[in-house]
# Entry
Amino acid sequence: MAGLKILPPLEPGDLLLLDGGMSTQLSRYVTGVDEDPLWTARSLVEHPDKVEQCHMDFINAGARIILTDSYQISEQGFKDHLSLDSKATRDVIVKSVQIARTAVTKCGRPDNYILVGGSIGPYGACQHDGSEYTGDYIRNGSVTKDDLVKWHRPRIEALSKAVVDFMAVETQPTWQEAIAILDCIAEVDPVVPVWVTFTVKNETSLANGESIKDAISHVMRHPLYSSGRIFALGVNCCSPKVITGALDSIRAVNRSLPLVVYPNSGEEWDGAERCWKGVPQVWDECVSDWLKRGTIIFGGCCRVDSDQVMQLRVS
# Structure
């Protein structure tokens, strides 16, 4: 995986275990996480020790990759709900990386054994209305590409300043926003590696109904892809039952890049009532199908805690 410094170097057939859902793990230590308009991001300010503990839980469960708690940070959100200005918000984003690095150190892991990825969630996540699973703000034209580049820039600049190992462009419901984020990364940071994962509603479609194949094609036409800085593609925060087919859709367009997979539990988020509904699915038995398609990074997303990550490691 070009650009990534991981020790010891990966050998053919090696796998990297990713962490699980920060919100699920954090709910062990902090109440009201899912109802909070800032979601897990508030705890970076009010409970940083609990965020650190979550990272440590996942590392001790076997994760070789952890993502920063920056998924739902925005300047507007921190202004509205924490009365923080732009500089203070950027400082919190930098702090999210420092907390992750401290967790690695406290777990006694050597340099470059654990990768720290900078989480870049979609615009919809910070609206706290479930629109990261629909991309309606793109479909109805209320947010333009220029708007998205401007909105994502502060977080990307802060993650770059803090020197993450890579940037995780994740839970993208549309290819348009993914491309806007990639444009911004290209402008801000000349070297950082990137992975891109989409959230999907079925085996062939992104969350907003666009074709998975078309989305991957758009990513492959981006300069970051041609320069080799996009090191993995995949899907996350979607039902486990659609992932194998979604990976087949990716492989129909791209047969070379490693795949990254981190589904949620199979439950669905109700943006109106702000809660998870449905029944968790047993999905560790699906892992072999994902590995056969070239997945070398896998873990969990929402409703997947450190105990389940440990089970994945064992399985």
